[in-house]
């Protein structure tokens, strides 16, 4: 994990460190087992094509979990991910880069907590956002 | 919604809005935490190693973000997932289902909240928030929003999940 980030160092509009993913079909099978989602469009190409899809697609919930990792790693040992989530707007293919990104939209203190709101999303190599969402993270203070 | 197309939302469905479904029991086990973390690609040792997790103040291996426990499988039954009945078991004229999105909320340091760790037994209660009909690029769609609340074995609130289900 990266060095601890502190509330004082965060600026609205700043981007957090990106997380790059690229799912092999093996990772999709791992995720099926890890999450309990065994829908065949994620590992059986014939089945996926019969439903009208061009091929296998990455699970939306896996992309959401990638955003969870992006935020967990950014928040560090002394930060906490309070909220995160996204809409599953577009499909991602296996063996293609999925870039997980986040930008700070608001920072404030409430009930003694240092809170940061972010826009988060995953994007395809052409820049198209496939999983737009938001997050709330509590960060430690230097003081 | 147009006059020509009658609503697919039945009286039975309207009556179900806000009503809590039967609770589902979810187990948070070490192996499942590790498997979930591994499938995502997490590198933080708190998701894999008990000593590392305890060293960071957790009661046991931490549940990775988005992992809320494993439903109890019963041969011949459903998957046991919370909210499984939420919107899926109503008679609607659409065959296809898409998961529209999921939002998670955690309560790690709320007075009545806690983190989720291996060894926890979670009770999940799901209810439908709304049904909505729209016309999208895929044709007419029914959008079901539901919320599931997760409490642990000590009655502590550990998570809420808002989900959107699209039928078309």
List the total number of helices of chain A. 3
Series of H and E elements of chain B: HEHHEEEEE
The major beta sheet of chain B can be summarized as:
6 strands, antiparallel
The topology string of helices and strands of chain A comes to EHHHEEEE
Instruction: Tell me how many strands of chain A there are.
Output: 5
Task: Please give the CATH class of the domain at 11-26 and 83-167 in chain B.
Answer: Alpha Beta
- From the N-terminal CA to the C-terminal CA of chain A, the straight-line distance is 22 Å
How would you describe the overall organization of this protein?
The complex is a heterodimer of chains A (143) and B (168). Chain A has 143 residues and is α+β, with helices and mostly antiparallel strands. Chain A has a domain at 7-23 and 58-139: Thiol Ester Dehydrase, Chain A, CATH 3.10.129.10. Chain A has helices spanning 25-35, 45-50, 60-75, and strands spanning 19-22, 80-87, 97-110, 113-123, 133-139. Chain A has a five-stranded antiparallel β-sheet. The longest helix of chain A has 16 residues, at 60-75. Chain A is elongated. Chain A starts with 18 loop residues before the first strand and ends with a strand. The model of chain A has no long low-confidence stretch (mean pLDDT 96). Chain B is of the alpha+beta class and 168 residues long. Chain B has a domain at 11-26 and 83-167: Roll (Thiol Ester Dehydrase, Chain A), CATH 3.10.129. Chain B has helices spanning 11-16, 30-40, 50-55; strands spanning 24-27, 70-71, 97-106, 121-136, 139-151, 157-167. A six-stranded antiparallel β-sheet of chain B has the order 2-1-4-5-6-3. The relative contact order of chain B is 0.23. The chains are: A alpha+beta (143), B alpha+beta (168). The A-B interface holds A 1, 21, 27, 30-31, 33-36, 51, 60-62, 64-66, 68-69, 71-73, 77, 80-88, 133-134 and B 32, 35-44, 56, 64-67, 70-71, 79, 81, 96, 98-106, 108-109, 162, 164. β2 of chain A pairs antiparallel with β3 (97-106) of chain B, so a sheet runs across the interface.
């Amino acid at each position: 994990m990266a060095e601890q980030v502190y509330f004082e160092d965060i600026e609205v509009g700043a981007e957090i460190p990106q997380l790059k993913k690229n799912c092999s079909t093996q990772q999709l099978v791992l995720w099926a087992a890890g999450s309990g989602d065994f829908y065949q469009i994620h590992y059986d190409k014939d089945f996926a094509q019969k439903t009208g899809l061009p091929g296998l697609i990455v699970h939306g919930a896996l992309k959401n979990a990638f955003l969870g990792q992006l935020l967990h790693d950014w928040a560090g040992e002394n930060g906490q991910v309070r909220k995160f989530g996204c809409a599953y707007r577009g499909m991602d293919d296996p063996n293609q880069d999925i870039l997980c990104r986040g930008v700070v939209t608001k920072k404030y203190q409430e009930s003694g907590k240092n809170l940061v709101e972010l826009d988060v999303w995953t994007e395809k190599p052409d820049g198209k956002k496939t999983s737009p969402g938001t997050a709330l993270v509590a960060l430690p203070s230097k003081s | 919604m147009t006059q020509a197309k009658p609503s697919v939302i039945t009286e039975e469905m309207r009556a179900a809005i806000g009503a809590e479904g039967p609770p589902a029991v979810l187990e948070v086990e070490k192996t499942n935490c590790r498997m979930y973390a591994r499938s995502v690609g997490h590198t933080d040792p708190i998701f894999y190693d008990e000593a590392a997790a305890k060293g960071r103040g957790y009661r046991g291996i931490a549940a990775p973000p988005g992992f809320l426990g494993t439903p109890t499988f019963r041969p011949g039954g459903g998957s046991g997932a919370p909210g499984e009945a939420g919107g899926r078991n109503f008679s609607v004229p659409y065959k296809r289902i898409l998961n529209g999105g999921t939002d998670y909320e955690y309560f790690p340091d709320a007075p009545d909240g806690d983190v989720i760790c291996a060894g926890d037994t979670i009770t999940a209660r799901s209810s439908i928030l709304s049904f909505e009909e729209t016309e999208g690029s895929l044709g007419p769609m029914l959008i079901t929003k539901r919320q599931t609340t997760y409490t642990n074995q000590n009655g502590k609130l550990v998570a809420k999940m808002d989900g959107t289900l699209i039928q078309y």
